[in-house]
Amino acid sequence: MDEVFKALADPSRRQLLDVLNDRNGQTLRELCAGLDMARQSVSKHLAVLEAAGLITTTWRGREKLHHLDAGPINAIAERWMTRYDRRRAGALADLKRALESAPMNDFAYTTYIDTTPEKLWQALTDPAFTSRYWGVSFETDWKQGSPMTWAERGAKTSDPGQVVLESEPHRRLSYTWHTFTAEWAKANGIDEETLGKLQRESRSKVTFTIEPHGKMVKLTVLHDGFDPGSTTLEMCSQGWPALLSSLKTLLETGSPLPQA
Q1: What pLDDT shows up at residue 6?
Q2: What is the pLDDT of residues 125-139, one digit of tens each?
Q3: Which of 47, 59, 148, 191 is 20–30 Å from 36 (CA)?
Q4: What share of the chain is helix, strand, coil (3-state, %, to 5)?
């Protein structure tokens, strides 16, 4: 019994009990209802941002993750101006700029392509396609766990860490990013200082999610696994938008965009 009284008399324990009891007359049921309303409000605003193309979503098991979409805000505003008034579009643009000022550790991008899931899958895996819009071809059988060899501008990159992580034809594809070798850097005009930074960073991975969207196909690209302040992320964030635009143009017109 003495131990009980000592526990109740402890100042830190008393403070915790006071916080729990100080609910302004609210019952626990009322508190839970308030939390549920807050959750619904956040979900509603996330749905608006997703519909406006300012964020993109991916799934990790049953968990839905939200990422800042890397698409240019002016393109998004034009696309959705008929659905959302200019005032709201301006507010969303301000929000996007605020989010972009915060550190990012992944790259997420969503685009819509006038094609089929089968053709898009082929464009992501067939060297005859990837070499046209990317300048890269892959040597692999695209089975989960299989090794990958990257061929780019005459340089071949092989490493045990380059593997296929997920492979669901016409639906989902994920693999680890390539190793940064001296041969690759020379072929791509990368200086020694930048190469050194790249080689010290953790290996990242990219995931492509393919979803039917009416008569089009929705393609979501998530490149993650970067270290804070990653040089790889900075370079990929500049390269992915142009690359995916060229992929879209190739599938819709038969010709990719000119490579820079």
Answers
A1: 59
A2: 999 999 999 999 999
A3: 59
A4: 45, 25, 30
**Low pLDDT (below 50) residues in the chain:** none
> Are residues 208 and 172 in contact, defined by beta-carbon separation less than 8 angstroms?
yes
83 Cβ contact partners less than 8 Å away, ≥ 6 residues apart: 51
Q: Give first-to-last CA distance, the chain, whole Å.
A: 79
Per DSSP, helices labelled H in the chain are 2-9, 11-21, 28-51, 73-80, 86-100, 117-125, 127-133, 182-187, 192-200, 231-253
Cα–Cα distance for residue pair 110/222, rounded to 1 Å: 9
What residues does 158 pair with on adjacent strands?
Answer: 149
Residue given tokens 């380059």 in the structure block: 162
Give, in degrees to the nearest 5, the angle at Cα 207 between 204 and 210.
170
Task: Give pLDDT, residue 35.
Answer: 65
**Residue 56: partners with Cβ closer than 8 Å, 6 or more residues away:** 50, 66, 67, 69, 108, 109, 110, 220, 222
Q: How many CB atoms lie within 10 A of CB 95?
A: 16
Instruction: List, in order, residues 6 or more apart from 195 with CB less than 8 Å away.
Output: 180, 182, 185
Query: Are the C-beta atoms of 73 and 182 separated by less than 8 Å?
Result: no
Going from the C-alpha of 73 to that of each of 48, 197, 230, 248, the distances in angstroms are 15, 30, 23, 19
**pLDDT, tens digit, 9 for 90 and up, residues 156-170:** 999 999 999 999 999
